[in-house]
Amino acid sequence: MLAAFKSRTAPMRLDTTLRPICFGINKNVSVDVAKTVGPAKFKMYEHALYTMAQLSRIVYCDSGIAWNVITKSLGMSNDVVNKVITAYDWAYVGSRRKSVTSQPGDGSGLPMESYALTPPATGQCYGTYISTKDDTTCLILTVGTGTPRLIGGNSIFKAGDVIVSFKGSSTIANFKHDLLSQFTAADLQSLIGSTGIKVAGTGNVVTGAFIRPLVAAWSTLMKGLQKHIVADGTRLFLTGHSLGGAYTTLFAFLLAEGKASGTLPIMTKVASIHVVSFGSPTVLSDTARNTFNRHLDSGLVTLDRVVSQRVAARSAATQLLVGGIAGPNDVIATIPAGFTHPGFKPLATNIGPEAGGRPYSIDNIRKFYGVDSKTRYRDPATWPFTEDIGLGDLAKAAQLKALVTGLTKVTTVPDDVVGLPAELAAVKVTEDPQAGGFGSQKNVYAKATQTHIPNFISVQGSAHSFGFAHGEYLGMFFMGGFRLAGMKNPAAKSDAYFELCSDGVKIQYTGGLAGGRRSRRGRRSVRRTRRV
């Protein structure tokens, strides 16, 4: 009787994640409604998370390998996709150019990256791969005939949806820079004047080091979006890992502000923006966070901020009260100091928020929505793929290898497990819940977070990620991005714009786009097909 009474009187809470869309329920959720969701519908949510993790990893590949991985495996289980990436990395590591001093059309005869250039592809194009001269890289896909595994089954995606994935740091040197750099605060409106977007209010301070590359690449990014956003009512999904997660968050912020203010014409065709980030650094001030969160409450934006952790995210002080030991957790989600994340999350002063109807650990989120989950890793009840949930286990290595060999025709594939660089091996911290603090903007947030289900989602990686949680998300191994040099433009001179088509990859290499400047006299364009 007491349990029933508590259920009837439990407060309604806003869930501004992707979950209500996956479940087909109102975002104003009661405990009674949540319990009716169950495993079958929850599979759709986990399928979306797994798919976004796949695309967050695929964008670390260069365009030729990305084309193959998408064609052969996107939408299969993460074990398969991860191994397919490894297979192509291994197959082409020997043919990669050592020099980056040439570019198409310079007369050297060297290919742009790893592959021979042949006449242009003629098939239907479904994707765009952009890499600026400063190595800001993203992948844009239109869901449809080019991505058949993303439609049907447990997938929430439908034809015409557009997905954008931003690449994070592609080398150890860049990663160390992201980890150790001192970041400066900057007013958002003052930085984005060239985009034409008007931001609501004042005092929206952001991490300047993360917003400037987006502004520099703006014209190229808009060119890509305009190619893919063609129908009214388009749903736009954004994702990224690490630095890519920061780009994803800020890009969503700019697009939402542009739509709300009517200052970004392309957004008139966009019905909603859905952000899924993995291990994103902090990017916003308290004021900017509250401005962003208004888009969550309005329904224009959803946010799922995934962080890999061995234990639930509690500060050292509150661990004595709620139990659990420290890390090792993803350090990147805690930096740079002085900034915060968008969305809602329990305060450090809250005791037992998950028991009070604000779950953030994936197992407790499952339980809240009617799944009897006992793991913060993969749960058989909500596993969304037809492939075996344990296909990535060592005991089934031969089975996985045979499957991947059949997909890729690459017969020699090394083990996936990548050793962590010694200089990073000791990085182990716990992300604290959002501090309460003082000031009007903190008070606004402290009150609002009590009525929201957290956008923060704590997941656990496999045993391979125990020493470095940032290197794996939902079975996708992002340390693989460090195995090779990573995608970067030859000589870092111009923006590279690739079109992924059914029969190959077109290259348009255009000078003068980066930084918002375009010189027709200095412009040159070379179109080729990359075939592997």
Automatic annotation (TrEMBL):
Pfam hit, one? Lipase_3
- Which spans are transmembrane here? none
Q: Where is this region: Disordered?
A: 513-532
Q: Which GO terms describe its biological process?
A: lipid metabolic process
Write out the biased-composition intervals (Basic residues): 517-532
Q: Record's SUPFAM superfamilies? A: alpha/beta-Hydrolases
Query: Fungal lipase-type domain location, by residue?
Result: 163-298
Q: Which PANTHER family match?
A: ALPHA/BETA-HYDROLASES SUPERFAMILY PROTEIN, FUNGAL LIPASE-LIKE DOMAIN-CONTAINING PROTEIN
Name of the featured protein: Fungal lipase-type domain-containing protein
